Amino acid sequence: MKTAEAGTELPPLTVTFRREDLVRYAGASGDFNPIHWSDRMAAALGLPGVIAHGMLTMASAVRVVTDWLDDPADLVEYGVRFTKPVVVPDGDKGASVTFSATVDKVADGLAEIDITAIAGEEKVLGRARAVVRVQ
Amino acid sequence: MTIDATMVGRSYTAAESYQVGREKIREFADAIGDPNPAYRGAGAIAPPTFAFMLGSRALAQLLSDEELGLRLDRIVHGAQKFTYTRPIKAGDEIAATATITTVRKAGDVEVIMYETALSTVDGEPVATSTSTISHNRADA
């Protein structure tokens, strides 16, 4: 099990989403909402284009924590707010999101970790927080 | 019909349990681009957000309650939280019950919170998923 103290920074992670990744996530998760694969349907809802599944962004964000943990089973709580959509253009470049995390406090064998998710210049998740068991 | 605060407390249990298979866990881990070895092989556990999928049959029941009058294509996922009693693992047979916990209205927009209890079919608690969704009833 990890040791942690307030202020510890976890190694950051940058993930690139391409259209292919959204199609794969749609298939694996069963979330076939067309805003994640059709520009036409995304535009009809007033979006600038196809957006990543919030749950895919959420899954990627927690990797900053689970990559750091010796065992992902030490995660006891994880929550996010979806504040901005991640627009994924159709092209090789896709959309990149950078995740970073800092231990906020440690008490009673639990560490509370704040996660930040930035796409372009914008925060795409709010109040992203994980609680993990530590030594 | 339309949703209102009197519907807080309504519960929807998935008609069928979800059998967690190790190949489905691997497929999901591949789809989120996560190479963690804990999600692969005979003793595989599921990535944390796999839990959302386990609630989808209960959510489908909630959405099909005609008295609430909700439409999937008018819903935006606002927030999501999981608490884990233990990791979900290959071989688990999971039952899901979604309960409406909050309904707030602001004009045409309804903000709904629901909590999905995930347990084994033998009644062992595994995880709780708390979701906040916004439903827009305005005609586009």
From TrEMBL, chain A:
GO CC terms on record?
fatty acid synthase complex
Enumerate the spans annotated as MaoC-like domain: 11-91
What Gene3D superfamilies does its record include?
Answer: Hotdog Thioesterase (3.10.129.10)
What family does this chain come from, according to its entry? Answer: Belongs to the enoyl-CoA hydratase/isomerase family.
Q: Kindly list the biological process annotations in GO that this record carries.
A: fatty acid biosynthetic process
UniProt-listed InterPro entries: Fatty_acid_synthase, HotDog_dom_sf, MaoC-like_dom
Q: What is this protein called?
A: Dehydratase
Q: What Pfam families has UniProt attached to this entry?
A: MaoC_dehydratas
Example GO molecular function: fatty acid synthase activity
Automatic annotation (TrEMBL), chain B:
The record's listing under CDD domains reads:
R_hydratase_like (cd03441)
Which SUPFAM superfamilies does the annotation name? Thioesterase/thiol ester dehydrase-isomerase
Family annotation (InterPro entries)? FAS1-like_DH_region, HadA-like, HotDog_dom_sf
Q: Which residues form a coiled coil?
A: none
Q: Where is the FAS1-like dehydratase domain?
A: 7-128
> Which family, according to the similarity comment?
Belongs to the UPF0336 family.
Q: Which protein is depicted?
A: UPF0336 protein E1218_12560
Q: Which organism is it from?
A: Kribbella turkmenica
Q: What is the lineage of its organism?
A: Bacteria, Bacillati, Actinomycetota, Actinomycetes, Propionibacteriales
